[in-house]
Specification:
The protein is an alpha+beta fold and about 260 residues long. About 25% of the residues lie in helices and about 35% in strands. The strands form two sheets. Strands 1, 2, 5, 6, 8, 11 and 13 form a seven-stranded antiparallel sheet that branches. Strands 3-4-7-12-9-10 form a six-stranded antiparallel sheet, with no helix packed on it.
């Protein structure tokens, strides 16, 4: 009973807040600059929290009904993650003439060295039954006069907490393209002043697009691991449309022999 009463009061407070913001919007034209400045700061604070609610709510409501965890986990998996760009709606869905170092969303940045950018990106809604991610990323590349194009995905802190050389890091993807191209994935792990890098080519002709990074063959200093990120590198992207329907990462310890 108390829970339903709290819910009723919460809704009442939110409705009153909405009415107050409606009145504030109507009065904004007549406020002096100092009052308008204060109102703008307050509105921005509220908008940040509302955007957080919308990101979580729309992302969860958009997920296919596939069970409690839509990320595939192999036995022994101790960490699994889907970047925000594929989990829920982002504040800016699309970019045209994308400049290098453009942040597509938190933790996802596009890099290139074109003199004139003819690259567009757009977050799209996945609707197919086989799609586990609610959203995907479409990238259209027209004339391309650069030597590289990449998307950098910053891994969260959980990815490196307890990371050991006995770990296998697995990347799975669902990729569509208008014409064949090569995509490479490079895992970067910063430990102290050094960065370990492991590169794998995505097997785009295989039914399962998956690569694994075996940390056993690196010189990783387990005690000094600070952060990690993934570079998705697109070779020969000119005059192509590339759709990344899903990207997931996971890790598991290698089987003991």
């Amino acid at each position: 009973m108390a829970g339903s009463l709290d819910g009723f009061l919460d809704r009442l407070v939110l409705r009153r807040a909405l009415r107050r913001w409606r009145r504030a919007a109507g009065a904004a034209e007549g406020l002096d600059l100092e009052q308008l400045h204060d109102l703008r700061n307050l509105a921005r604070q509220h908008r940040r929290q509302i955007d957080r609610v919308l990101h979580v709510a729309e992302g969860r409501l958009a997920l296919p009904v596939i069970g409690p965890n839509p990320i595939r986990r192999l036995p022994g998996t101790d960490w699994a993650w889907r970047p925000d760009l594929w989990r829920g709606p982002v504040p800016q869905r699309g970019f045209a003439g994308v400049e290098s170092r453009t942040q597509l969303c938190d933790g996802a940045t596009l890099f290139h060295d074109c003199r004139v950018s003819e690259i567009t990106t757009r977050q799209i809604r996945n609707t197919r039954e086989q799609d586990l991610a609610p959203f995907g990323l479409r990238m259209d590349v027209f004339h391309f006069d650069g030597s590289f194009l990449s998307i950098v995905l910053d891994l969260p802190a959980d990815a490196v907490n307890g990371l050991r050389t006995r770990h296998l890091v697995r990347l799975e993807a669902i990729v569509e393209m208008e014409k064949p191209l090569e995509i490479f994935a490079r895992l970067n792990i910063k430990h102290g002043p050094n960065v370990e890098q492991v590169v794998r080519e995505l097997p785009l002709n295989e039914p399962e697009v998956m690569v694994e990074f075996d940390l056993f063959y690196t010189r990783l200093n387990e005690k000094r691991v600070e952060k990690a990120w993934i570079d998705l590198i697109f070779e020969g992207p000119e005059l192509n449309q590339i759709v990344l329907r899903d990207i997931t990462l996971s890790r598991r310890p290698r089987a003991e022999i």
